[in-house]
Amino acid sequence: MFFFYKDSRQERAGEGVARRVLAHGGKLMCVEVSFEQGAIGPMHSHPHEQLTWVRSGVFLFTIGKEQREVRAGDSLYKQPNIPHGCVCLESGVLIDLFTPQREDFL
Question: TM spans, by residue (predicted)?
């Protein structure tokens, strides 16, 4: 199936955070998340596996008990149910892949 960016809509996902659901179906979903500098992705967990690719910006990520600074080109893996969150140090965009897809985002 084809999903065109121009046909997708961005929605607020927190203070200084916007989410856009991209291609999805079956058991896989791609989501773009844009952050303003200083915005926070609060600590949370969910039953989905998640891969994150940093398209732009700089983020301080916490996954479980580990905290690291990541920037454009870096990627992260979050196993199901592990607490994770981030602080945006320089405005940027994350591309998240979830399996199974996040029904709560649809």
Answer: none
